[in-house]
Amino acid sequence: MTSGEQIAALGASMFARGLTFGRTGNISVREGDRVLVTPTGASLGALDPGGLSVIDAAGNHLDGPKPSKEAFLHAAVYRARPTAGAVVHLHSTHSVAVSCLDGLDPADVLPPLTAYYVMRVGRVPLLPYHAPGDASLGPLAERTARDHLAFLLANHGPVVAGGDLSAAADAIEELEETARLFLLLHGHRTRPLDSEQVAALRDRERTPR
Ligand SMILES: O=C(CO)COP(=O)(O)O
Ligand SMILES: [Zn+2]
User: Fold this and answer.
1) pLDDT for 71-92, tens place per residue?
2) Quick check: 77 and 141 in contact, CB under 8 A?
3) What positions does the domain Class II aldolase/adducin N-terminal occupy (predicted)?
4) Is the C-beta atom of 106 inside 6 A of ligand 1?
């Protein structure tokens, strides 16, 4: 499958499962110096694999239709994370709900409820509200992405990187399910993983298997 076909297949799957809706969300894949990104105003449910936009890591539009208004965010993540091969942004409902909560710890929005959340996502910070496409968020996004795989845009939604598209998809789905669990558990006495359990999982993830 070409990268364009992979992006279209993932978009269709995310859309079909209600992980994003309408004409929201955007997906990109890095290929060397070029980044293939979904066009602005596209439905992730109906992407044309041959009709994607091309930008560079500075966010410049190189080819194809006008890129996503969040292309600058994707470019910022690629500059910050040399190992990132893909970036996904969704308006996934439970993650967006968490991004609207008052009183979150902006350094770490969700507790480590499950092992897979720790293994696939890690610590997720909250970036302050900016209107969609407001490129003044770029420098903070770039600094944040250096040591975070994922971040949450306040009153908006998640942005998640991965070594490749399937890793980015796994991580953003894990984040969405953890946000759902967090909201489901509201009002229940909850026992997240303790710091030793979290540290052991982080060590294990660093050990090549
Ligand atoms: O999610 C979106 C904005 O945050 C969708 O915008 P684009 O259609 O420009 O990608
Ligand atoms: Zn958005």
Assistant:
1) 999 999 999 999 999 999 999 9
2) yes
3) 5-183
4) no
Q: State residue 207's pLDDT score.
A: 61
How does residue 205 score in pLDDT terms, banded at 50, 70 and 90?
confident
pLDDT at 208 (0 to 100): 55
CA gyration radius, the chain: 16
CATH code of the domain in which 51 resides:
3.40.225.10
CA dist 35 and 38 (Å) reads 10
The atom number, within ligand 1, closest to the CA of 20 reads: 1
Helix (H) or strand (E) holding 138: helix 138-146
Of all atoms in ligand 1, which is nearest to the CA of residue 38? 10
Active-site residue, 117 included: no
The CB of 142 under 6 Å from ligand 1? The reply is no
Q: Which domain holds residue 37?
A: 3-206
pLDDT band at 182 (very low <50, low <70, confident <90, very high): very high
How many domains does the chain fold into? 1
